[in-house]
Amino acid sequence: MTPQHARAQRLRESRIAAGYRTGRDAALAFGWNLNTYASNENGNAPFSYSRAKAYAEAFGVRHEWLYEGESPTGSDVAEPRRDARFVPVIGKVGADPEGAVLFATGQGTGDLVPLPPGGTERAVALQVVGHSMPGLADNGGLIYFEDQRTPPTPDMLGQVVVVETDTDEVLVKRLLRGSRSKLYDLESVNGPTRRDCKLRWAAHITAIIPPHQARKILRPV
């Protein structure tokens, strides 16, 4: 990993630890340019030392660690890092009153769960609430995915995936082709299909944990 991408990874970790589900949420909260922040966090554009200070102050971390990856010289206090064996539960996934629309809340629960088999540092989880996904995930279960924020890929078609729409909704849906390029139909596990949606990103579900096991592995923080 290059220094630029390592710095971007630390920025992402800081944002998640501070309780902001997406880079967009953080940028809006602090009045940052959305495109600039996104480019800084995904590693496409480097950020300066002065910008690191602003990000560090916002997310409650040391700017020396954020920029250089280490604590200030002479400090005996290391920058807190998330245990690599655990990943954050970034929200709850459930149904609206009609049981038609699956959604994720905009704020994390504060809990951690073990890294799933094959998971990377980008792994995150959603906790299932309600009974809108029979046969897929039950109330109290966990849905893991890799939070890579990349456009849908052909191998996702026909699969149940996690997506974000251009209307800021995070959904668990079966991904289908729309009526034209870059539009997608989103089929609910239990509800009507949404037609011709524009998506910001899509991610494969990497693991589903049943409720009885989820209760054993949730780690409040």
UniProtKB/TrEMBL annotation:
Can you give the residue ranges of the HTH cro/C1-type domain?
41-66
Q: Which Gene3D superfamilies match?
A: lambda repressor-like DNA-binding domains, Umud Fragment, subunit A
Among InterPro entries, the record links this protein to: Cro/C1-type_HTH, Lambda_DNA-bd_dom_sf, LexA-like, LexA/Signal_pep-like_sf
**Organism of this sequence:** Phenylobacterium koreense
Q: What is this protein called?
A: Phage repressor protein C with HTH and peptisase S24 domain
Q: Which CDD domains match?
A: HTH_XRE, S24_LexA-like
Q: What is the lineage of its organism?
A: Bacteria, Pseudomonadati, Pseudomonadota, Alphaproteobacteria, Caulobacterales
What PROSITE patterns does this protein map onto?
HTH_CROC1
